[in-house]
Amino acid sequence: MMAFGHMHDILGGKETNAMLRIGIIGCGNIAGTLADTMLQMPDRVKIEAVASRSVEKAGDFAARFGVDKAYGSYEELYDDEDVDLVYVATPHAFHCTQMLDALERGKHILCEKAFCINAQEAEKVFALAAKKHLYVAEAIWTRYMPSRKIINDIISSGRIGRVTTISANLGYRISQKDRIADPALGGGALLDIGIYPLNFALMAAEGDTIKSMSGLAVKTERNIDIRSTIQMEFESGTMATIYSDAECVSDRRGIICGTDGSIEVSNVNDPDEIQIYSTDRPRVLLETIPIKHAINGYEYEIDAAAKGVAEGRTESEAMPWRETLRVLRIMDAMRSVWGIKLGSELE
Predict the structure, then answer these.
(1) Cα dist from 134 to 74, 90, 284, 323, whole Å
(2) Are 183 and 340 in contact (CB under 8 A)?
(3) What digits encode the pLDDT tens for the residues 216-267?
(4) Are 340 and 224 in contact (CB under 8 A)?
(5) pTM for the full model?
(6) For 99-110, what is each residue's pLDDT tens digit?
(7) Using the 8-state DSSP alphabet, how is residue 72 labeled?
(8) CA 202, 205, 209, 211 torsion: positive or negative?
């Protein structure tokens, strides 16, 4: 099946200039940010259509970003033969059903985090994607950013020695938002913002296996986590502490300590600076590495999708299915301990 028209000429072995035509479902803030990013990548992607459960909302979004087609149902977008890939920008609780519907109609997918409510849902999506041989990836931008490789290269070079501890936090005042407050929508701090420091720790400990894990959560009257901490011990002896809070603004820092130095990352959700320190007392700042993007940082996940589809891949190299499942299984385990059910789990 050629859902993404002849981007790679297999016989000639040459890439062509075919566009990845994207359909956006959901018209919230993140969809607007991604649409703005896509408009700045006219040589690689085109926004073909947008859909919302409200045709008026879809129309407003389309007018704002110069999109020709606006649909009042997601099914109409899935049936559009000019759409190659569906970008899913709806609440977590709807991701599984929407992705399954899009895959059944032969669409590739880039889906916002959290990819699904739980690992069981994600397994269904990946099984269908494998059967249909369609590209599916979780759009957690920090996995695709150049900062990831910079941090991992520093660690693997031995510059800070053996990593002993990792800490990462993220906090925003967003507890009033429905997507956070409502368990039916997949609410809670962990799936929405805790997923970033969790991914930060897992990327910093890349290749290591979790040996043990524990955590605490403060819950609301609606039984969602408003803040939480997770502690992990890895087989190497590295320990990680992850903190998220939907009621306060935190410093959002990520710190990786080693026997010969440390790394501090200014913002685990969107790194703009990486600092390397010595082990002196007081410690000495050895190097500051600024992080700059050609657009805004979201271009990397879009580029990865275009490349993956063009090459006939089903998974992203930056965020393969096994890693999406690993993150979900960690969050599933924690929510099980905390007694929190979300989305389809409430049925």
Answers:
(1) 19, 20, 49, 18
(2) yes
(3) 999 999 999 999 999 999 999 999 999 999 999 999 999 999 999 999 999 9
(4) yes
(5) 0.94
(6) 999 999 999 999
(7) S
(8) negative
Q: Do the beta carbons of residue 217 and residue 247 sit within 8 Å?
A: no
Domain 146-292+327-346 adopts which CATH fold?
Answer: Dihydrodipicolinate Reductase; domain 2 (3.30.360)
40, 55, 153, 271 from 292: Cα distances, Å = 16, 37, 17, 9
Q: Token match 């981007």: residue?
A: 7
- CA 53/CA 308 separation, integer angstroms: 29
H-type alpha helices, 22-114: 29-39, 55-65, 74-78, 92-104
Q: Give the distance from CA 343 to its chain's centroid.
A: 19
Residues of the chain with CATH 3.30.360.10: 146-292+327-346
The superfamily CATH assigns to domain 8-141+298-316 is NAD(P)-binding Rossmann-like Domain (3.40.50.720)
Residue 99's nearest CA partner among 87, 82, 83 is: 87
**What 3-state class would DSSP assign to 144?**
coil
Looking up tokens 């296996």, which residue turns up?
209
